[in-house]
Amino acid sequence: MVGCGMHEEDGRRYVSLAGLRLRGWTGGLVRRLLGPPDRLSLDPRVRGAPQVRLYRLERVEAAERIGELQPWEEGHQRPWRGYSDARAGERPDDRRVARDRPRSVMIQRVTSPALFPPPTYSHVSVVEAGTRLAFLAGAVPLDADGELVGAGDPVRQAEQVIVNLGEQLRAVGSDLGDVLATDVYVVSSDPSVLSAVWEVVEASGLSVGPHSSTLVGVACLGYTGQLVEITATAVVPEGREQEMVRP
Asked: What pTM, to 2 d.p., does this model score?
């Protein structure tokens, strides 16, 4: 296995969802253009690691050639700035600071050199003193009428949760790229289910930082049929407080 979302197994080269994100893909494009993965893999270095979905590099490159998207070119700011200078087979620099975009508040995304490098999140997010923060209640998979979305489908519920989380953030003048940390709760004890939900998080704007996150399997959540919930802490950038929705 190699880093930066690239994998080599059995003499073949694969790209993980993290690698696709680095190339500019979104979750919707993956589902539409690639469909099911070519294989599932486990990182042998991590005990109990969730399965990683891998796509043949040839299929990825062929899909990119149809024109619906272009891979990120050298010098273009990638969504995941923390790994933007990494090359396949190289570990990103420890304690790399990722700046999502020009902002008045500096957010440091830190990976500890003493720990195993996380795939699509940072170990720590740090902001300067005096920064305006928003602490969000858990986003849930309900539509605007209070109806559960995606009954029995944790992936569909995760997608709705991300949509709702975005609405909560916009209500205070923030957005997904300003999130410092999340807790992702999934009703399951199956690591593959947790991994599928994480892939939705990974494909969203939450991975721009990448932010700090904890993924947890739980026995039950608050609404009948609810399988996913995400809480978040985010920065409200200076000058955007006036965008807050007020009663």
From this structure: 0.57
Identity of the amino acid at 119: P
DSSP string, 64-127: HTTSS--PPPTTS--S-GGGTT--TT-PPPTT-----S--SS-EEEE--TTSPPPSSSBSEEEE
**Polymer length in residues for the chain:** 247
Q: Residue 209 pLDDT > 80, yes or no?
A: no
Other CB atoms within 10 A of residue 102 CB: 5
Asked if 201 contacts 182 with a C-beta cutoff of 8 angstroms, the reply is yes
Q: What is the spatial distance between Cα 5 and Cα 17, in angstroms, rounded to a whole number?
A: 7
User: What tens digit of pLDDT does each residue of 66-113 get?
Assistant: 655 544 333 333 333 322 233 333 333 333 333 333 344 567 778 878
Mean pLDDT estimate for the chain = 76
Distance of CA 161 to the CA centre of its chain: 13
Q: Which pair of structure tokens corresponds to residue 135?
A: 């602490």
Q: Cα separations (Å) of 147 from 5, 41, 75, 101?
A: 37, 36, 44, 36
CA 240 to chain centre: 24
